[in-house]
Each structure stands twice: as C-alpha cells, then as structure tokens.
Amino acid sequence: MVSQTRRTFMIHTVGLCAALAVAQRAQAGAPLVDENDPAARGLGYRAKSSTVDAAHFPKYQAGQKCENCRFYTGAANETSGPCPMFPGKAVSADGWCNVYAKRA
C-alpha cells in the first residue's frame, strides 16, 4: 500500500512539473508589442519610458514604467511581461502607455 501511494505521488509530481514548465515557456514566448502596432499607437505605448513625448502625453511623469503599473503582471526582475491592454503579447518592463496607473 505504501508503494502505491509513493507511486501516485511521483506521477502527480512529474505531471505538475511538466505543466508548470509548459506554462512558463508559453508565457516567455509571447512576442513583444511593436510600437507601430495600431493598438500600441492608440495607447501611446513606448518600449522605453524615457522616449515618451511629455508634450503629447501630459499624463506621463518621470519614473512611470510598466513594471510599476497596476496592469503589468510580469515577474519582478524580468525585462518584459504580460499586460491585459495587449492580450497575447508582452510589454517591456521599462515601457509606458497612456493607461498607466500606479501600482498600490
């Protein structure tokens, strides 16, 4: 009986590890948003926040970046991550768009 429980545990553990690896690879494989994409242009997305034209986007303030926006769901210390404003694509952690909202 003990070996059956151990075997079941090992099978479940291997399955879980495989599922996590696939999920991580799928997230990491998301293409970066192109600044010339129509949705990106509509939201004023810039891959580097330092290149935002503050005259054109008066909402922008120095220090605002995707990585500290409430909508950015990328992991800490990652260079890019997902954002619901651009489904299926990743944004630069150093980026900015007009939907920026400071993370609480």
UniProtKB/TrEMBL annotation:
One of its GO terms (molecular function) is electron transfer activity. Residues 1-28 form the signal peptide. One of its GO terms (biological process) is aerobic electron transport chain. It holds the Pfam family HIPIP. InterPro entries: High_potential_FeS_prot, HIPIP_sf, TAT_signal. Keywords: 4Fe-4S, Electron transport, Iron, Iron-sulfur, Metal-binding, Signal, Transport. Residues 27-104 form the High potential iron-sulfur proteins family profile domain. It comes from the Bacteria. Belongs to the high-potential iron-sulfur protein (HiPIP) family. Homodimer. Specific class of high-redox-potential 4Fe-4S ferredoxins. Functions in anaerobic electron transport in most purple and in some other photosynthetic bacteria and in at least one genus (Paracoccus) of halophilic, denitrifying bacteria. This is High-potential iron-sulfur protein. It comes from Paraburkholderia tagetis. The lineage of its organism: Bacteria, Pseudomonadati, Pseudomonadota, Betaproteobacteria, Burkholderiales.
